[in-house]
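ok so I'm stuck.
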Amino acid sequence: LAERTNLAGVQHILLVLSGKGGVGKSTLSTELALALRNAGKRVGILDVDLCGPSIPRMLRVQDSAVHQCDSGWVPVFVGQDKAIALMSIGFLLERPDDAVVWRGPKKNALIKQFVTDVAWGDLDFLIVDTPPGTSDEHISTVEALRPHQPLGAILVTTPQ
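replied:
not stuck anymore, here's the structure
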């Protein structure tokens, strides 16, 4: 019997990437989640931008707290209909504007924990908002998600 993972109920995983910061990855992730929700889909956002977790503020849930359950962390549910599930390091910081100054191994361990230990339940889409650039966090995220066969990636670019 295969071990049931917290991502077993997730139908499609999409990564949102960019080569540089400030191009609108978090905005695109948020708008995509809202559009999918408005189309009747069950949506989650995994914010792995550890140094700049902006999605909790964009969705006006920055003062929410993450709780534990038997199968791991319970994501924060957004809106009156609770149709968007969200996990972000922003919920784990004492103050939303605190900087996260961690070296690679600690960041990579948290990303792996986000992938394995968040109880997403049944979702049509999980949108993964990544940090800017091409760092260890991207490799850790893709490695952790590989067994779950991500649907693809959206590369956000801007003309210079």
